[in-house]
Amino acid sequence: MEGIKQHLTTPEQKLLKTFVCDGCHQHVSQNELIIPSGPREGERVIANYGCRCENIKLAKAARKKYSQLKHRKLMASFNYYSLINDSLKEATFDNFDALDSNLKLAKEKALAYSHSFDRKQNLLLTGDYGTGKSHLSISITKALMKRDYECLFLSLPKLLTKIKRTYNTKGVTEDELLNVIQRVDLLVLDDIGAEQQTEWSTSKLFEILDDRSGKATVYTTNLSSDELKERVNERNFSRIMDNTNVIVMNGSDYRRRAF
């Protein structure tokens, strides 16, 4: 090792100038170096000591790649666990047609909810069949996932059916489903009150609502407040309405406007 060190030659250096880099705002010393040996012996090269532009560029690239991977993972989880009708898979705020003042106001409120998202604030979209409640609620999830929030969209009747199926089939277990429901930043429970009313379904709904206590949930229903209270029972209704803003959507059937 000592023999190798003896044959190493330090490059000749000459300070050319010092300056503050426009890119990284660091004090930089610009030196001219003369390569002392090897195939490039005698070649002059310029080196900027103190500049961090390349490090910043690499760090930005690493953050961008991490963000892309995280977004893909969130989307994969959303697509795997969510229970969505095919007609809603392309739904966004951009393709929601608010053809009357009531639906325009509903869209504005849903957009405001997504823009100022609060992990503890809930939303209830209620009104006539086909007015676009599910469309707006899934639009909220898509807007939030662009900002790397983890979301889940579940039709409550389909969810309860899926939970029952886990008792007899392999694949996603009930515990796995409930763990995902509990952890996500935003859960959409679509079509509350449309599920078959049994002691088991009422109890399972309470378990889901209890797990979501203190976490943002968006609910949709075609029922009035009195009807919903009667369908889900007073205890579940109280959980649903806790820290919940209501958007009322009434008007012509959103799915039949072409006629």
From TrEMBL:
One annotated GO biological process: DNA replication
Domain of life per record: Bacteria
All copies of domain AAA+ ATPase, residue ranges: 119-242
GO MF annotation, one: ATP binding
Database matches in CDD domains: AAA
Pfam families, per the entry: IstB_IS21
InterPro entries given in the database record: AAA+_ATPase, IstB_ATP-bd, P-loop_NTPase
Record-given protein name: DnaC replication protein
